[in-house]
Design goal:
- By secondary structure, this protein is of the alpha/beta class.
- It has a single domain (about 5-260), classed as Rossmann fold.
- Helix content is about 35%, strand content about 20%.
- The protein has helices at about 50-60, 80-95, 95-100, 110-125, 150-155, 160-170, 205-215, 250-260; strands at about 5-10, 15-25, 35, 65, 105-110, 130-140, 195-200, 220-225.
- An eight-stranded mixed beta sheet has the order 1-2-4-3-5-6-7-8, with helices on both faces.
- Helix 2 (about 80-95) crosses helix 4 (about 110-125).
- The radius of gyration is 17 Å and the shape is globular.
- The mean pLDDT is about 90.
């Protein structure tokens, strides 16, 4: 992967936050700007664990701001979402400092980060945060039931318990708000265009595809893809060895195609 990253402080509503900035080798004049949120089932994870996906986004032509929200995730909803929303608002106002003043703004995340990205897209619609161009969701945690057919087929065993534990921690004892469990949201019209990626062996496959279908039925522009073969998703996302996985080029191509279809990059 050709993307390089540097670390800097982002002055958000939560105060100074350390973030990683990924930039590919060949950037357009107005590259898309992506807020990337790592996985970890709301139990652990870090910006380092998100290095693979962030690098693929940068290789697709984006400037990627990767945030470590793990401290906020130690508290139940809405702490992590509020933290991420503060970062998104900062990028919206100061995008010229990271990419270009006319760069399109995206949110992206895998697994728990995909949950936050979907929740941010819903909130951005509701509070009229300007110019959110798209949401990129990889194996997003959307359904707290942890009981879909793909979960049963994956026979995830102890991993099922991990995701169930993560959901129980994140939701706490409060009501299941649509921002916390986007898969339960009854109002999806008007959210930003979505790219939804999953895999045949992904326990989150069914909830990912169901969300893509419901977004499309609500009039949202959606691209969705299911990778074949053994991908090891979502655990494979946290591989930070630097090795490019077999599916890396394909996923990078999906990212680039989505940026082009949303007008963030030229064809």
């Amino acid at each position: 992967m050709g993307a390089n990253w540097t670390e800097q402080m982002l002055d958000s509503s939560a105060g100074p936050v350390p973030v990683r900035i990924y930039r590919g080798e060949d950037l357009a004049k107005t590259p898309p700007l992506v807020l990337h949120l790592h996985g970890g089932a709301f139990l652990d994870g870090s910006a380092k664990c998100g290095e693979l996906v962030a690098s693929l986004l940068a290789d697709a032509g984006a400037v990627v701001v990767a945030a470590d929200y793990s401290m906020a995730a130690k508290e139940p909803f809405p702490a992590a979402l509020q933290f991420a929303y503060g970062l998104l608002g900062c990028l919206c106002k100061e995008r010229g400092d990271f990419a270009a003043k006319k760069s399109s703004l995206f949110v992206a995340g895998e697994e728990a980060g995909g949950n936050l990205a979907a929740g941010l897209a819903l909130k951005a619609r509701d509070v009229h945060l300007g110019a959110l161009q798209g949401q990129i969701l990889l194996s997003p945690m959307l359904d707290p039931s942890v009981a879909t057919g793909s979960f049963r087929k994956a026979q995830a065993g102890e991993m099922n318990c991990r995701w169930a534990d993560g959901w129980n921690h994140y939701l706490g004892f409060g009501a299941c708000h649509p921002y916390a469990a986007p898969g339960y949201s009854m109002r999806l019209a008007g959210v930003a265009p979505a790219l939804v990626l999953t895999a045949q062996d992904d326990p989150m496959r069914d909830e990912s595809l169901n969300y893509a279908r419901r977004l499309r039925e609500a009039g949202v522009m959606v691209q969705d893809h299911v990778l074949t073969g053994k991908t090891g998703w979502p655990g494979a996302y946290s591989d930070c060895s630097g090795a490019k996985p077999a599916w890396g080029e394909t996923v990078c191509g999906f990212f680039k195609e989505f940026f082009q279809e949303t007008g963030a990059l030229p064809h």
